[in-house]
């Protein structure tokens, strides 16, 4: 057995087939082993149950430590170990601490993959060898600067410029400066609440969107609320008395002025309407909430109805997102650097956004990494249920930008029927980690999957079933590819483009009623676990 292990190791060393995998990736391990690769296992953390101490020194101190390690004979390309063992064992420099449960899960999987300990034996024999293929769940697990050119690693450094919500928002805001693509055509407008200018821009956007929404609501209810028609208020609605047509008149004036600024974009923007001060906006929003969310009656004249139709049509020619924004003015608030749907909240009230992130008006408080993004209120639904799509793509070079787009993707369903009147996570957040907390609603459509996952092929079959078979190849896939490329180009100069690295990403898309894809976010280290 030892002789056979030595023969395999000698061949692997000669062919530079030594690999290292950090994390529970059994399929990657098994496929590499099947090709003659031998794993160099990383040292494991001690099992004390408390978190190991982390290095909090300054950047200068880290550089001094690196120089000292090089002076002690550390070769370039080696996996550098912490010279001061933590909890009685050594660990890779800058490696991330894994929770006890994740460590146990990883070791159990490795034991299942290697019941007779043969791979452990070979790993012991290559303990002093340089790994030529490195797969980790975090780029920071290794010092990329110390890697040889012939060492392949599955991460690039500094990809937070497009793999965090805050970074993607900023990068796409700058996209028109470096590319001809317009982010408003594929990325719902987004603002960084930690930036003073973005905060103000968001509040202005919320006001303008509310005015447009009011015009749409007026048109939708026009047949029932035209002046002279009787509309008795239901006693349990609590919406109050009918609102005078002056509210709609204010909304019309706001939209007309906004249209003027859009049509004459090369001219300095018109000043705000004199009567729309901060307190005026507060009053306008409160009346708007009554009409849209509490269904208070809105007085509409025939002339106002015609102005609404004409104005909305002209605005739609200028604003590429009007088709998806709806009339509830719902926004989604996201922590800028978290994943799996943690901390995400949907709201339709400006004051709730500001309260949720601790903003009390002026002076502005620092809001960290929070972003707020326009919610897609008119998504493509499947049997009345919201879904999104996880699309994998692989980057193998940044100069020239080389992207491999996976033909397979998968759909993630919410657990409850879609509704703009109820903003529960079970209806609006498609993340698997969120939806696993809920059971499918009563009346769950029999054609919807019990595990709330479809393959992209099942989605294509559904599109054919509803008479939109061409949408996948003609609208959805080309739109997703264009969005991914635009997002990557927006951050191309910020990424540390090491030759010899590659990285797999997972982009999340939602589709409008017209099947137009809208990019929501891009994830590094996307889950690779089977459904």
From TrEMBL:
Residues 43-62 have a biased composition (Basic and acidic residues). One of its GO terms (molecular function) is protein-glycine ligase activity, initiating. InterPro entries: TTL/TTLL_fam, TTLL_monoglycylase. The keyword ATP-binding applies. It is found in: Cytoplasm, Cytoskeleton, Flagellum axoneme. It comes from the Eukaryota. GO terms for biological process: cilium assembly; cilium movement. One of its GO terms (cellular component) is microtubule cytoskeleton. Keywords: ATP-binding, Cytoplasm, Ligase, Nucleotide-binding. It holds the Pfam family TTL. It catalyses: L-glutamyl-[protein] + glycine + ATP = glycyl-L-glutamyl-[protein] + ADP + phosphate + H(+). This is Tubulin monoglycylase TTLL3. It comes from Cuculus canorus (Common cuckoo).
